[in-house]
Amino acid sequence: MSDREEAAGKLLSSTSLRDFSPPKALEERYYDLPSYRATLAPQEAPIPVLLRHALTLIGIRHDGPGEKVAWWVSFAYKGYHCELAHQKFGLRLRIWGNLTEDQADELLTKIRKKLGSAVKTVEGLLAATASDTLNTGDVTVVNQHRQLRQAYDYFRERATNPDMVHDITESGTNEFGSWSTFLLGKNVMAMHAFHDLVAAITAFVSSLEHDFVLALPFLDFDPTTDDLTKIIGDRWGEKWRRVMGHSDSEAVHLRERLIMVVERWRNPYSHGGFEKGHGATIYLHTPGIGALPIGLSGIRDSPLFPFHAASDTDIQGVFALFDEIDAYLGRTIPHAMEWIDSGLDVRFDAVFRAQVLACIESDGALERLIDVYASSADTIANMDY
Fold first, then answer.
1. Are 237 and 229 in contact, with CB atoms under 8 Å apart?
2. Contacts of 163 (CB under 8 A, 6+ apart)
3. In the chain, where do the E strands start and end?
4. Phi-psi region for residue 8, left (φ > 0), alpha (ψ -120 to 50) or beta?
5. Rounded to whole angstroms, how far apart are CA atoms 334 and 330?
6. CB atoms within 10 A of CB 89
7. How far apart are the first and last CA of the chain?
8. Which residues of 304-325 are buried (b: 16+ CB within 10 A; e: fewer)?
9. Do the Cβ atoms of 17 and 56 come closer than 8 Å?
10. Cα separation of 51 and 54, whole Å?
């Protein structure tokens, strides 16, 4: 145990966990006494292992895993035998003793509050070393590829096949005479398609950024030279350069085309409707002529210029480019995309990177390693130990 952990343990033993102690010997635990149970809601203990670690810091060991149980901790609270168990269907706290329901509820409530207070100390301890852990690459990044792609697929489908909107004709009379209005359904559909196009572009670029980060351990990630926090915070173009490099002309061309799409369609509507250079969004008061757009005749490339912001051809061209990018990534970083498509989280530590390299060198693919990790993930999720 490190000096920091020992100091945290001493603090907990004198404050929130001062009434907690190691359990009695097995033969003295009186399991034949009445027992009472409380289930802690996810909001109360979103990371159950932190409660366990608080007890570990004061010298109370844990056991597990077991059938449908990830771990359990036996301890004593004011002389009563207790147990905290992370089970498949919840985090359970139990107490044994000759108690009334009200007495047991009161004790269980106090235990929960004290454990919750102890978690704050544990989190402060872990936060102090988080940067060091991150810098060594001992981290796992949650794989959100499928969720992000689902958003992209949803908006792409709507942009290419907008819901039918019928023409609407209304008429009537009032004190001024007769009136009529007409709404062309195709115009409404075109407007909806444009809105969904912008959303689809945003979703695609977000997914692309995410995939570039996930791809790093399958390429040349080195925690001694790579700053993972910085890479995650970089703009998508920098992530592209980090993963795809600068020498592949196809990669450079695809990136340039994507920049044009992002600057024309997404960026104006991600920054208050203002285009780069304000081409069609700001008009200069010009003596003798009137108000002129800054972009002058260049506004023909602005979404604000045509009657419909995006034509069917525009929409098809954007998604054709995205398909090209997907195909290119599948060809150039196949192992990374194979893992990303599996939905499994991605580790950045040296052990995982070595496993990936060994599997690729021996099998030429990651299918075997993916199967191993998928099986392990299922075991953990279902607690089938």
1. no
2. 189, 192
3. 20-21, 35-40, 69-77, 80-87, 90-96, 140-141, 168-174, 177-183, 283-286, 290-293, 346-347
4. alpha
5. 5
6. 8
7. 28
8. eeeeebbeeebbeebbebbeeb
9. no
10. 5
C-alpha 93/C-alpha 45 separation (Å) is: 12
Q: Which of 193, 226, 225 is nearest to 312 (CA)?
A: 193
CA distance 221 to 137: 9
Q: Residue 302 has what DSSP assignment? A: S
Alpha carbon separation from 249 to 246, 256, 260 (Å, rounded): 8, 11, 17
Most distant pair of Cα atoms in the chain: their distance: 100
Confidence check: pLDDT of 305 > 50? no
Report how far residue 264's alpha carbon sits from residue 302's, in angstroms, rounded to the nearest whole number: 7
| pLDDT of 367 higher than 60 | yes
Residue 229 neighbours by CB under 8 Å, 6+ apart: 134
Q: Which helix (H) or strand (E) holds 280?
A: none
Cα 286 to its chain centre, rounded Å, is 49
- Give per-residue pLDDT as tens, 111-147: 999 999 999 999 999 998 888 888 888 999 999 999 9
Instruction: Please state at what angle helix 350-363 crosses helix 334-342, rounded to 10 degrees.
Output: 110
Helix (H, G, I), strand (E, B) or coil at 10: helix
- Only one residue has tokens 């919750």, namely 116
Spatial distance between the Cα atoms of 221 and 227, rounded to a whole number of angstroms: 10
Q: Which two tokens stand for residue 56?
A: 């570990």
Q: What is the DSSP string of 195-219?
A: HHHHHHHHHHHHHHHHHHHHHGGGT
Structure tokens at 34: 């009445």
Cα–Cα dist 2/75, whole Å: 23
Residue 313: pLDDT above 70? Answer: yes
Position 357: which residue type? L
Amino acid of residue 206: S
Q: What is residue 131's predicted lDDT score, i.e. its pLDDT?
A: 83
